[in-house]
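Give me the fold.
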Amino acid sequence: MATLGTQVNQVIYFHLERTWGIQREQLPNSPEKLLEGLKMMFGLGSKVVEGGILREVRNSFGITPAVTDLREAIELAKETS
C-alpha cells in the first residue's frame, strides 16, 4: 500500500485493527478481512486500492502479472517467503 502514502496506510491499518481486530502482521493470513475492510472504507474504489496492493505484492515477490487475484498473489508470496 506504499502508493497511498504513509498517513493513508496508517488510517487503513488503524481501521482494520479497530473494526476487524486484525493487525498489520496478520493481513497475509486474513486476505478476506483485508478485502472486506477495504470495501467498507472505499466502496467501489476498493478495487483500485486492491489493484495497487496486488501490483506491489507481484513486484515484491516476482509473481507473474498473469495472477490477477490478490488472494492468490498473497498465497504465492507466502510460499516464496
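The first helix runs from residue 6 to 20.
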